[in-house]
Amino acid sequence: MRYFLILVGAAVVAYLLARGIAAVLADRKARKTQRREIE
Q1: How far apart are CA 27 and CA 30, in angstroms?
Q2: What's the superkingdom here (predicted)?
Q3: In sequence order, what are the residues at sequence separation of 6 or more whose Cβ sits closer than 8 angstroms to the Cβ of residue 6?
Q4: How far is 39 from 17, CA to CA, in rounded Å?
Q5: Residue 28 confidence (pLDDT)
Q6: Domains held by the chain: number
Q7: What was the pLDDT predicted at 30?
């Protein structure tokens, strides 16, 4: 049971990290497009 909980916890952490990285990358792309529009 412990191993199962560890696997679930690791999966959740990896999922949250992936979402965070994706959000940061999307934010950077959005900022670049906004700068181009302003210029």
Answers
A1: 5
A2: Bacteria
A3: none
A4: 33
A5: 86
A6: 1
A7: 80
This prediction has a pTM of 0.62
DSSP state letters, 1-39: -HHHHHHHHHHHHHHHHHHHHHHHHHHHHHHHHHHHHH-
Amino acid residing at 36: R
Distance between CA 9 and CA 1 in Å, rounded? 12
Q: Containing domain of residue 4, as a range?
A: 1-39
pLDDT in tens, the chain (39 residues): 899 999 999 999 999 999 999 999 988 888 777 766 665
